[in-house]
Amino acid sequence: MSDVQFRELRHAPAMPVNFAKAVLRAGVKPGKNPTLPKVGLRLNDVGLDSKHLKAYRKVCGFSADGRLPVTYPHIHAFPLHMALMMEDGFPFPAMGLVHVRNRITQYRPIAEREQLNIKCSLGNLNQVEKGWEFSIFTVVTTAGERVWSSESINFFRGGGHGRKDEKKASGEPAPATDTIEWKVPGNTGRRYGAVSGDRNPIHLYPLTAKLFGFKRQIAHGMWSKARALAHLQSQLPEEAFRVDVQFKLPMFIPATVKFEQRPAEDGLDFRVLARDGVKPHLTGQLRPLGE
Fold it and tell me: Where is the MaoC-like domain (predicted)?
């Protein structure tokens, strides 16, 4: 967004004092269309915290190879995402949002000790059948070179246009065949929350999740993406690539899930499925970028 006004931060933002106000926002008023504040945040010279990186690798399953895991820059950007959603002009309650899709583009591998400059902004507000979707854009540069970017698409239920969205008929997904099984412990949400800063109560304990209508805690969507890419770590391209995921059914933990990967014409597709090998928690597509 060319008209976004960026504000530079001296350090990663802590939880703002208006957090409760932002969480309890009433949402979209009937007959009124929401707008996003035209603000962005910039954080420069983010350096390596080796202890934090080690903890992130451990909870997500990445091996140490001298490079940042492909999902790791999202951890640095997440406090900026939250700060944007705490802005006075932000129209939705933070606790009512659902992360539905995520796209990461890595333009080249990032060495562990490179200093990162991170820029985040809001955009792409669209009314859909049952509510509203918007994006949080992140761009990461180092020494003036763009090395990583992402788009996180979030959904707010309420105020939708009510019309069925046209979707291409894709038929029933092919049944899973060659899968591996993962055991996901019940403390995964607490461990990932400790390294990511995303301590949403729905991820922590059965009791805190029940307060928000869940039968027990659920895994973070971005943990599921990271865990899948950790499994694919040795297959990630050296050149620029993009990885898209769509978050599907919540993963109640502890859980036993299945991971499947399939070759595609221009890359590979992968899925995280429930123990029955049918119900999807996550679908993803890994594609190299063209010249």
Answer: 188-260
b/e for 181-209, b at 16 or more Cβ within 10 A? ebebeebbbebbbebbbbebbbbbbeebb
Instruction: Report if pTM > 0.90.
Output: yes
In 3D space, the residue among 264, 261, 250 whose CA is nearest the CA of residue 217 turns out to be 250
Tokens of 117: 């400059």
How far apart CA 74 and CA 109 sit, in angstroms, is 15
Taking a C-beta distance cutoff of 8 angstroms, is the pair 122, 84 a contact? yes
Taking alpha carbons only, the member of 218, 159, 199, 157 closest to residue 19 is 199
pLDDT digits (tens, 9 = 90+) for 153-199: 999 988 888 788 666 445 667 778 889 999 999 999 999 999 999 99
Residues 151 and 245: their CA atoms lie apart, in Å, by 11
DSSP letter at 111? B
Which residue has tokens 């703002």? Answer: 16
List Cα–Cα distances, 274 to 4, 20, 62, 171, 249, in angstroms.
Answer: 41, 34, 22, 20, 9
CA count, 13 A, side-chain hemisphere, 38: 5
Q: Does 16 sit behind a cis peptide bond, omega within 30 degrees of 0 on the bond before it?
A: no
| Nearest partner of 176 among 52, 84, 259, 75, judged by Cα | 259
Best CA proximity match to 258, nearest among 245, 274, 281, 280: 274
Amino acid identity of residue 92, one-letter, is F
Q: Which DSSP letter does residue 175 get?
A: P
**β-pairing verdict for 39-46 and 5-9:** parallel
DSSP class of residue 105 equals E
